[in-house]
Amino acid sequence: MTSEVITIPPLENGEQLTRAEFEYRYEKMPNLKKAELIEGIVYMASPLRIKKHGNPHARIITWLGAYWSTTSGIELGDNCTVRLDAENEPQPDALLRREDGQSTINEDGYVEGAPELIAEIAASSASYDLRDKLGFTDASTRIYCVASL
């Protein structure tokens, strides 16, 4: 009797997947740092440089962190997964959500629905941060902020 070995293909940039298939394959790639599903298309991040991404990211987190520390009823997220809908699962650089707002935290700890603010640092990813991800506004995100460098 032979047993069949099933090989799960790794995620590939540009692939078209359902959110369920994307999540399943992403979980099987523990060394992958960041992948997003935008309108059913897989996007995988390039290596990040300190001056083009690291420093601006730190500034946005500092700015939003100051607001978060003085405002009750909100949550700040840094690179956390957002399950917007069946075709969109971004991992924005930063987000703010109201605890009583339109998004929720599911039993797995993921943000479900659109947070009130999403912020992205766009250096190497400017083309899709400024074009493809604009679907966030269709998902009721009130503010979509892109720092394009």
Question: Can you offer a commentary on this structure?
Answer:
The chain is of the alpha/beta class and 149 residues long. The protein has a domain at 46-148: tt1808, chain A. It is 26% helix and 24% strand. The protein has four helices and nine strands, in the order αββαββββββααβ. The strands form three sheets. It has a four-stranded mixed beta sheet.
Ranges where pLDDT stays below 50 over 5 or more residues in a row are: none
Shape: globular
In percent, how much strand structure appears in the residues?
A: 15-25%
CATH H-level superfamily title of the domain at 46-148: tt1808, chain A
Q: What would you report as the Rg, rounded to the nearest angstrom?
A: 16 Å
- What's the total count of β strands? 9
Q: How are strands sequenced across the largest beta sheet? A: 3-5-8-9
Biggest sheet details: 4 strands, mixed
Supply the helix-strand structural class.
alpha/beta
Ends distance: 59 Å
Assign a percent range to the helix content.
25-40%
Mean pLDDT: 86
State the CATH class of the domain at 46-148.
Alpha Beta
The helix count comes to: 4
CATH topology of the domain at 46-148: tt1808, chain A
Task: Assign the CATH architecture of the domain at 46-148.
Answer: Alpha-Beta Complex
- Write the element-wise H/E pattern from the N-terminal end onward: HEEHEEEEEEHHE
Short note summarizing the structure:
This protein has a domain at 46-148: tt1808, chain A (Alpha-Beta Complex). Helices cover 26% and strands 24% of the residues.
Topology:
Layout: H1 19-27, E1 35-38, E2 41-44, H2 50-70, E3 74-78, E4 82-83, E5 94-98, E6 104-105, E7 111-112, E8 117-122, H3 126-130, H4 135-138, E9 143-148
Parallel strand pairs: 4-7, 8-9
Antiparallel strand pairs: 1-2, 3-5, 5-8, 6-7
